[in-house]
Amino acid sequence: MNSEDRVLTKDELLDKMKGRDAVLVISTIIDEEICRSVKAKCKIFACYGVGYNNIDVESATKQGIYVTNTPDVVTDATADLAWTLLLATARRIVECDQFVRAGKKGWNPMNLVGTQVTGKTLGIVGGGRIGQAVARRAQGFRMKVIYTDVQKMPAFEAATGGQFVDKETLFKSADFISVHAPLLPSTRHLIGADEFKLMKKTAILINDARGPIVDEKALVEALRKGQFAGAGLDVFEKEPDLMDGLSELPNVVLSPHVGTSTTETRIEMAAVCARDIIAALSNQIPPNCLNPQAKSNQGIP
Amino acid sequence: MMTKASAYVTRPIPVQIFDFLEDYDVEMNSEDRVLTKDELLAKIKDRDAT
């Protein structure tokens, strides 16, 4: 295990991966060159997380290397964090914390007034596992749930009672909008200036999915103009860097991509990766394999 | 002509209170502080509600 708390350079990575049968990948870019260089021995890139946009899956497949991720185990922790951000933004918890720590005394009825959550409308962008988990939690807040995706999702509706709407309707109607789409070419900047113009002035945007889904420059501009009320963000377009001006806005709550950061989830993610590695090294297709077709390319020089 | 009943609000709260008590003569302390006892006595003297 790399014991240094940093992403290795490409040369370091190539050196370390040489002769390995399996690689457990954490936030490391695995490109075509790396896939070609390790193909002789490596059977699997086990991705420690649900997102795998850092891995060139097509190249791995060509080289007969399985790529896996950890989809199910991250659902609850990520959904919990979306709610953490939603409540923290709505109730201005970071400002409240700073206020108390600073020893300020103006504890009057109009100080740090936030937005009520209970009974409002929650809009979910992306009705997959995490979107469903977030929507299920909304029942405790007696919220109306609407969602949008590329198509109607009966499983989402059965699990949450949510109603399918188009993207425009969702952005116009929701009081809280929580993003749970994967990062794909079609979802890059899925949410930008056009969507922000549709939002209620009182609405709050939450994103703990992938940063580039939201046009961060447009987000800063919209928040500066007061087009909507605030945002809770765990992911950023060019993380760990932030768009200029974002950290100066008082109406945003920011966290450093900690969606899955609970002890229980981190351990379970490691267990899932281990099971996938053991399967691949036992000549089986791993349980969470994203490219089972890689098997047919194994052993090809 | 009957005069309106009078109410005083001791600290700022949402201004909607003026709508809710539109039939009354309402004054609100707009300063972000608790009034001293003397100030309070002066403000609520002869009020119908505080």
Description:
With 301 residues, chain A is an alpha/beta fold. Chain A has 2 domains: 10-72 and 262-297, NAD(P)-binding Rossmann-like Domain (Rossmann fold); 75-254, 3-Layer(aba) Sandwich (Rossmann fold), CATH 3.40.50. Chain A has helices at 10-17, 32-38, 57-62, 75-90, 93-101, 129-138, 154-160, 167-173, 193-198, 216-225, 263-281, and strands spanning 22-25, 44-47, 66-68, 121-125, 144-148, 163-164, 176-179, 204-207, 230-233, 252-254. In chain A, strand 5, helix 7 (154-160) and strand 6 (163-164) form a beta-alpha-beta unit. In chain A, helix 4 (75-90) packs across helix 6. The longest helix of chain A is centred in the last third of the chain and has 19 residues, at 263-281. The mean pLDDT of chain A is 95. With 50 residues, chain B is of the alpha+beta class. Chain B has one domain. Chain B has 2 helices and 2 strands. Chain B has a two-stranded parallel sheet with strand order 1-2. The A-B interface holds A 106, 108-111 and B 11-14, 32-33.
Describe this protein with a few key phrases.
heterodimer; A: 301 residues; alpha/beta; Rossmann fold; seven-stranded parallel beta sheet; three-stranded parallel beta sheet; 10 strands; 35% helix; B: 50 residues; alpha+beta; two-stranded parallel sheet; 2 helices; 2 strands; 26% helix; flat
